[in-house]
């Protein structure tokens, strides 16, 4: 069956608009999470899930504490998707957290090329994976990745791997692309394995 091009185009336009909106939110100052959420307005849950994941998938993951905050945001959004809420809620201490403006802008510049790849790769396919009840494990993967990020922050690169997994699943939600969702699950499994192995080496180095 041939998939209409406009469905793919709509999804990639939404992703491009997200990056553009984030640029506007961070222009000239250090934006808070509240600033970013307000700018995004009535964005879909998939889009809201994608934003913190995209940030941690960039070198911005090196900002101390940022993987923890973004991980908790990812987990909270995914939990609300699981429970069927129709709008996002985040606690005030998360909403008031600010991101360094210069690093934020550099992270967004870093995303320009990946957004182009998404434009090329994503399209509606294997959509049954994104329908209830098959979508539930995908949402749980996002919860798991988000909750793991505060621990992964202490092991270099692993929080970015988890963020890439969430990015793939979030884009799958936006583009209705089950194949990207499967890729996200595979990356999440690889990230968990890498974290366990690297954390084991670090512990052995301390106590060995």
UniProtKB/TrEMBL annotation:
It comes from the Bacteria. The chain crosses the membrane at residues 63-82, 129-151, 157-175, 182-207. Keywords: Membrane, Transmembrane, Transmembrane helix. InterPro entries: ExoD. PANTHER family: EXOPOLYSACCHARIDE SYNTHESIS PROTEIN. This is Exopolysaccharide biosynthesis protein. The lineage of its organism: Bacteria, Pseudomonadati, Pseudomonadota, Alphaproteobacteria, Rhodobacterales.
């Amino acid at each position: 069956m041939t998939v209409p091009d406009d469905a793919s185009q709509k999804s990639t336009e939404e992703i491009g608009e997200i990056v553009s909106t984030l640029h506007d939110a961070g222009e000239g100052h250090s934006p808070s999470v509240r600033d970013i959420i307000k700018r995004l307005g009535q964005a879909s849950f998939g889009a809201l899930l994608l934003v913190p994941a995209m940030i941690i998938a960039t070198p911005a993951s090196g900002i101390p504490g940022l993987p923890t905050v973004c991980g908790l945001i990812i987990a909270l959004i995914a939990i609300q998707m699981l429970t069927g809420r129709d709008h996002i809620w985040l606690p005030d201490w998360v909403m008031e957290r600010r991101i360094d403006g210069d690093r934020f802008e550099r992270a967004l510049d870093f995303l320009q090329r990946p957004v182009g790849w998404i434009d090329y790769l994503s399209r509606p396919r294997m959509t049954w994976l994104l329908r209830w009840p098959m979508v539930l494990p995908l949402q749980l993967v996002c919860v798991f990745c988000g909750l793991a990020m505060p621990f992964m922050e202490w092991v270099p690169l692993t929080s970015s791997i988890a963020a890439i997994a969430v990015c793939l699943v979030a884009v799958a939600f936006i583009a209705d692309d089950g194949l990207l969702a499967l890729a996200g699950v595979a990356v999440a499994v690889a990230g968990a394995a890498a974290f366990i192995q690297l954390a084991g080496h670090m512990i052995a180095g301390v106590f060995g």
